[in-house]
């Protein structure tokens, strides 16, 4: 015999969902979708640890999974440099290493963030001219996304904009997972 109490418990168990944070490494894949971060234009982004021409030299122990993607612009940039990730969630966080130096590497950062094609934030930072890096630095966070599929695009600087450096480490998003009853 079903009483109101048992019906409530049965419904509650069938409707359970949990919020989880999913971290996508800069050189890994989204564990829920199997899709990687897409870097454009091809050849502009470098896998930091393997880049011999990059001036940013980071100890792999200081970044997530020992990897980062490096891209820098110059005043004469003719094509936008972007990194994009499709995810299903309600929040997203972008983590980078931030250079404190003014040369080798030039640590100025000028990033724009787009969700589903709409500009939703910027990060501009002038380096203090000190040695080293700041790691696991959140350059963008958004905790008010409507539930569902979204595309995050990170853009480095602007066409004919100032020089800018991105050392992308990871993207984390919050997703609702429904648990079986």
From TrEMBL:
Residues 1-17 form the signal peptide. It comes from the Eukaryota. Keywords: Signal. This is Uncharacterized protein. It comes from Crucibulum laeve.
